[in-house]
Each structure stands twice: as C-alpha cells, then as structure tokens.
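[Primary structure, fold]
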Amino acid sequence: MEIAIYEYIFDAFAFVLGAIVGSFLNVCIYRMPLGLSVNEPRRSFCPHCKKQIPWSQNLPLISWLALRGKCANCGAPIAFRYFGVELLTAVLFLAVWLKYWAAGQWVLAFPYWIFVSLLIVATFVDFEHFIIPDEITIGGTVAGVLLSFAIPLMMQASVPARLMESSLWSLVWSALGAAVGYVTLWCVVELGKKAFGKKRIAFERAEKFMWMRDGDDADLQVGDEKMRWSDLFSRETDQLIMRCGSVEVKGVTIESTTVRFFYNRLVTDGGEFELEKLDTISGTVFEIVIPREAMGFGDVKFIACIGAFLGWQAVFFTIMTASVLGAVVGVVTIALGHREWSAKIPFGPYLAFGALLWLFAGWEIVEWYVRLMAPR
C-alpha cells in the first residue's frame, strides 16, 4: 500500500510538472519566432492588451478554465492552444514517467522530459510560422549529446551492450545519431532540389507584376497573387526567372527580355542592379520560374536533434514514419477535395510524431513489422 501511495505521488508530480513546463513552453512558442526574450519580461502577458498576468491568473490548466479562455483585464479571447499545450505536456510527462518507472529506468524520464518539450515547441512554432528555431534544433542537438554523456543509458539501443555504461561511447553514439540524421535529410533536400527545385508558371496572356521594397524585405505581386520576397529564396544561388514582355527599372523600360532575380540583385539585358538601391520594379510577364525546396533546412537540423537524443536507429524510423504519415494525410485531403490543407502542414510536426512514436513504442513496432513480413 505504501508503495502504491508513493507511485501516485510521483505520477501526480510528473503531471503537475508537465503542466508547469507547458506554461513556459507557451511562452517559447509565442516569443521565439518574434525574436523576443523568453526571460524578459519574466511574467507572461496578454498578447492583446500586453498587461502582465499575475501569478494568481496564470495557474497552468486551472486559470484558462476559470477565466473561460479570456483575459481578465481586457476580455480578449486567449487561444485554446495555451490550454492545449499545457495539457499535452502534462500528459506526455506523465506517459514518459510511467514508461521508464515501470522499466526500472526512472532516470531516463529527466532527459526525455527535455526532449518532449523540444518536440512540442518545434511542432507548434512550425505549424504557425513554418520555421523551427535554432535554439530548438541546434540547442537540442547539443543538449542531447551532453545528456547522453551524463546518462549513458539513453543510448542503450545504439551502443553495444559491453560499452553501454561508458559515458564516452554514449557521447560518440549520440553524436553519430545526430550526424546520421543531418546527413540523411540533407541528402533528401539536395536530391529534392534537383528533382523538384523549380516551379514553372505560364500565363495565357501577359500578367502585370510589381516588385516593391518593404523595409529589409520586399513583396512580389504577379496578377492578384502577392508573395513575400524572403519566402521565395532559401539559398544564395536561388534564381527567380521571368520571361517578360517589358520591365521598367529606374525609369528605363526594356522590351521582350528574360530577367533573373537573385535575393539581393536583378540581372537584365540592361545590366545588373542591386535590389537594396531600388524601390520598385514593374512590367509584364508571360512565364515565371520560382525556386523551391523539398523541405526546409530547419527539418534537417531538427532530425539531428532527434538523433542526438534517440540514436541513429530512431532517425530512420522517424523519417519513414513521418513520410508515411505525410502521404496518408495527403491522400485523405485529396479525397476530401482540400488538397491545399496538406500543403499548410510543414514536415516538422510529422518528424515530431515519428520521434514520439519511437520513444514510446519504436522497437515494438519494428519487431511487429519484421514478424509481419517474415513470420517464420
């Protein structure tokens, strides 16, 4: 009976700790993409009226329910995401604790709580902003390697049994997992760039276009569609090519020409122009070739983080699971007549799901699949 009581106390502690950490993760999810400090101001604030929230109105899970999802000061709605992140983190913290307590490896709960937190922040930031901050990817990779050195048991699936208690070998295998993950997805990105690195759009008749400076960035409008300049270029070598009826640059009109846009310059028959010295470029276009990537480099760094925490085997499982899940979602959205829905889901959340699946049941799924394919 005494043991059962202690187990309930530990379980409750894991859940409550997860809810508290989830409250902090909400801060990271909101502030990191905006370049704001997660430490200053120390208290959370309403995103609408900017008033700092007192501790009595910032109790994880409880406050959102008590205030019915509204700011106590201005009455503006507080997104369900805040409650959802706290609940999800609490449930995952509890699940991690139950798994490793039952296995007699409770010490693994601590590094994997950190890992789960990284996955949650990466998922929600990627959903909203289509980026994964370097603090999560690069910082997470470093944390995974250092934690593997401190807790060699983390690499038990990767390190040979005779070396499992060696901190140095655990560090080496963690670094290997990060390297395998990075190189694997990097190769996918490079091959995807060669195969699908250009999107060609031809118009039945000439469409008007306008390039307009907007501070350090710019907008490109072609017909009724407006695109953010920084969203079109992932590499310095990327080119946006236009076959134009006419182009007007600095008061000079060039007829029937092909222009090449790089992120910071424009190359035409009339010469080369630095975009930072221009305010507008206009004309008509018959065909446009837009550069694109198979996936973002944030995903490449993200899988390195996953490999650092879980080892090289998890890298391949995660990539395969993410790919299959992405394909299933794509087929379902097409069947529902909303193909654009799948385009709005970045690859990072699929990778996070695959990593979680490995963390809780990876080897069991692999063994089930092997038995299914070769029952004898």
Q: What stands out?
A: The radius of gyration is 25 Å. The first strand starts at residue 198 and ends at 214. The longest helix spans residues 2-31.
